[in-house]
């Protein structure tokens, strides 16, 4: 579950992580009131969307299509971005009016962009240096990984490509926690050498680690992390993603969910307990089990097509969930064919068959459909489908199933 910058900062503030004062706003009047409350003489007006590159982003309707295309590629473009400095109350009002309700296009949103519904009005500060910092789980050794770089304010992907040695990695054992040694290692790597500044940095990193662990973060990124003239670290921008499997432990965080930032199909899928992610391909997939879903997507790619989604109905899906899964897939106009690949363990193949048939009756079937059933009640499931009178292509294994749906789509 992704959070907006202002939400992430409100959570980090609970752990004593140093922040600049800021207030969210949803109207120009609220933005002005926030700026007046914060005082001046400098404010930063920030668009709140679940995407990076807001500063280089451009608004639809404000610039030409050519400039929007540049923004979608992360290139410098003419026009004003989604993060702006304001040196007067009038500047704050003008920026808020131009941002709110309009669609911001960035490198991470693509050309379709995202509508700005909330702003974050933040006070300014005297920046001496900018750094990059992120925290995530390194599954290769079951430790928390801190990644840091002196090149703050830039896309870390660009830094990794052009100057990989500039990225410092420090692993933290969760059984021990972030030690003073870990903190000093990070501080020295960033070029912080003053004794008092180093000690403050160690405290900063410890607070960030505590927040990451106790909030059940999947990822926490601070970019830029800034150092002021007095050697104090501040979070200038923050991205936070909470492990979806742990959100139930944080009711206050669950209430921060912004459904406007999510795909409508993903929202519907979550309501039925389905694991669904929309992709850019043309073959819809309905599979049980994440590993089998990944294998199905891979073989579709290998056969010359692309998956239109990741959809895991789980090991014990009921008929209504199967119907919902099928409906979600067929509602995607980019889907030119559907592959149902089920290995019955706890999940019974006859339940899948009944669900698919009922869904086809309700939604209709306008694209080729291949069904591969194996495992518990597989023969019964095949019989149910064969006797349904539906134009369904049966397959006995994954290889033939993938080839069949790709051939059917190309033939259509």
Tags for this model:
seven-stranded antiparallel β-sheet; four-stranded antiparallel β-sheet; 14 helices; alpha+beta; 412 residues; Dna Ligase, domain 1; Rossmann fold; D-amino Acid Aminotransferase, Chain A, domain 1
Q: Mean pLDDT, rounded to whole units?
A: 90
User: Which strand-content bin applies to the residues?
Assistant: 25-35%
User: Spans with pLDDT under 50 lasting ≥5 residues?
Assistant: none
By helix and strand content, what is the structural category? alpha+beta
Task: Measure the end-to-end span.
Answer: 38 Å
Kindly provide the radius of gyration, computed on alpha-carbon positions and rounded to a whole number of angstroms.
25 Å
**What's the story with the biggest beta sheet?**
7 strands, antiparallel
Helix proportion: 25-40%
The named CATH superfamily of the largest domain: Succinyl-CoA synthetase domains
CATH architecture of the largest domain: 3-Layer(aba) Sandwich
Please identify the top-level CATH class of the largest domain: Alpha Beta
Q: Counting H and I runs of at least 4 residues, what is the number of helices? A: 14
Total DSSP E strands: 20
Q: Which fold name fills CATH's third level, the topology of the largest domain?
A: Rossmann fold
